[in-house]
Each structure stands twice: as C-alpha cells, then as structure tokens.
C-alpha cells in the first residue's frame, strides 16, 4: 500500500497499523504527534489504528530549545 508521510509517498505491505509503520521507520520511540488523514491519533491507539492505501500521515516530533 502507498502512504503519504509528511508529503512523501512511501510503499508498505498491506494491513499495517500506525505503530507497525512507525517501527519500520524507526520512529516508534520518539516523542511525537501523529495524524492520519488530518485526525490526531493518540499514542495509546497507534497499535489499533489500521492504515489504508492512500492514507496521509503527518508526523510531528518535538525539539526542545530556547
């Protein structure tokens, strides 16, 4: 399946959850916000959020500073 992640198209095998995709991208341990098709997905629901071909993911990580 094709997903659009932060504006870039990436290919994954079908029937993945958001958490599985984040693991493939080595991002599962980062402090971040995730939205699927413009809807925020809480971190405790990442393993239940099934993705579909063409879904748009926005992944935002937080950087401390001052």
UniProtKB/TrEMBL annotation:
The family database entries (Pfam families) matched by this protein are listed as: ThiS (PF02597)
Q: Which domain of life is it from?
A: Bacteria
Q: Which SUPFAM superfamilies match?
A: MoaD/ThiS
Recorded protein name is Sulfur carrier protein ThiS
* Species of provenance: Sulfurimonas marina
Organism lineage reads as:
Bacteria, Pseudomonadati, Campylobacterota, Epsilonproteobacteria, Campylobacterales
């Amino acid at each position: 399946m094709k997903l659009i992640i932060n504006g870039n198209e990436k290919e994954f095998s079908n029937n993945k959850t958001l958490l599985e995709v984040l693991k493939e991208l080595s991002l599962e341990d980062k402090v971040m916000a995730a939205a699927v098709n413009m809807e925020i997905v809480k971190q405790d629901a990442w393993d239940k959020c099934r993705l579909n071909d063409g879904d748009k993911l926005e992944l935002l990580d937080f950087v401390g500073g001052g």
